[in-house]
């Protein structure tokens, strides 16, 4: 019934969008009958959102993690980049200037290829209890920053890579409420006033993407998808095993952003997260060697497993 309804509404919206020149982009949301449960039904090209079995985000359960000694530290180039910060109506997007001569590359970690930084998204909640897409042992965080790069050894650009094997890497940084913000995050949040409405954008200069990463070499990794339509299953996800911090004021700044334009602001942009998707037997690998924690203990199948998020149990402020 619900899907039939969506279909009917979709048919009329197609005519409508044809008339006023809107793209497909406008026809999905994070709630209601164009929300995550229906993305795969709205557009045949988004069918993976419903049918796919390697979808993202997921809930990362510590007792399902597998230590993989082949996983190396992740490397990211340190230099600063310029780009545009945009309120897309679905998310806060930072897109690296495409004319940059010196690209920021990612290598190592679970990656077999070199990836080139392309853009980042911020997902966040309208209340502190929700916001992140990935969850740790069922716990959500107030926000999540996702940093995307494309495989520049095999493909010539992001749009090509997103359709292809080993095309994209997504690095996820979970955000925790704190009294002192990560300094690079402040560069982004200081500009939010200028992108209050959907479609607005502002230039941001000299951002260090490395500076947005928490101080840890530990991560969890799995094969998944984009968390927005079309839900392509070409992503290697890397979830860093420590949060960075965002203040209450910065979260308020994010929560003031609206989906629509000045004339029709629509709903607040926040709560732009897709719920966790089933794992369907995918392995969740990690470079956290749980054995090392037990001095002198031999390799043993009942090893004690500890992840930062569990060890420092998440407190609501
Ligand atoms: C960068 O992107 C803009 C807008 O998308 C485009 O007009 C321009 O040609 C691009 N420049 C390069 C060097 O790719
Ligand atoms: C990143 O890789 C590209 C080639 O893919 C190279 O031209 C560029 O210099 C690299 N960036 C750095 C900082 O090494
Ligand atoms: C991306 O690369 C493909 C293949 O080389 C090319 O056909 C396409 O025009 C490129 N797209 C953009 C946006 O540059």
TrEMBL record:
- Domain Alpha-carbonic anhydrase positions: 26-288
Gene3D superfamilies this protein is in?
Alpha carbonic anhydrase
Q: Where is the signal peptide?
A: 1-21
Which CDD domains would you find in this protein's record?
Answer: alpha_CARP_X_XI_like
Q: Record's superkingdom?
A: Eukaryota
- Provide an example Pfam family for this protein: Carb_anhydrase
State the UniProt keywords alphabetically: Signal
Establish whether keyword Signal is in the entry: yes
Family of this protein: Belongs to the alpha-carbonic anhydrase family.
Protein's UniProt name: Carb_anhydrase
């Amino acid at each position: 019934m619900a899907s039939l309804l969506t279909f009917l509404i979709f048919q009329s919206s197609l005519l409508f969008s044809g008339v006023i020149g809107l793209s497909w982009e406008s026809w999905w949301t994070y709630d209601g009958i164009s929300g995550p449960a229906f993305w795969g039904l709205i557009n045949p090209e988004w069918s993976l959102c419903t049918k796919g079995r390697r979808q993202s985000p997921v809930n990362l359960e510590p007792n399902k993690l597998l230590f993989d000694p082949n996983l190396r530290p992740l490397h990211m180039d340190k230099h600063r980049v310029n780009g545009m910060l945009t309120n897309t109506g679905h998310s806060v997007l930072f897109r690296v200037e495409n004319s940059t001569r010196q690209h920021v590359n990612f290598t190592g970690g679970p990656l077999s290829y070199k990836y080139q930084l392309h853009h980042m998204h911020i997902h966040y909640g309208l209340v502190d209890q929700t916001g992140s897409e990935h969850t740790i042992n069922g716990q959500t965080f107030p926000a999540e920053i996702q940093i995307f790069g494309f495989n520049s050894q095999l493909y010539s650009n992001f749009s090509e890579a997103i359709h292809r094997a080993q095309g994209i890497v997504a690095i996820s940084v979970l955000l925790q409420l704190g009294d002192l913000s990560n300094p690079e995050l402040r560069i982004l949040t200081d500009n939010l006033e200028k992108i209050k409405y959907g479609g607005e954008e502002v230039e941001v200069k000299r951002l260090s993407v490395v500076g947005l990463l928490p101080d840890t070499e530990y991560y969890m990794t799995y094969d998944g998808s984009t968390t927005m339509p079309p839900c392509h299953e070409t992503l290697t996800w890397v979830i860093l095993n420590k949060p960075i911090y965002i203040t209450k004021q910065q979260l308020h700044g994010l929560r003031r952003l609206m989906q629509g334009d000045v004339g029709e602001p629509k709903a607040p942009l926040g709560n732009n997260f897709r719920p966790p998707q089933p794992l369907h037997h995918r392995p969740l690998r990690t470079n956290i060697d749980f054995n090392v924690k037990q001095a002198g203990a031999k390799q043993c199948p009942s090893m004690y497993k500890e992840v930062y998020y569990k060890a420092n149990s998440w407190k609501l402020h």
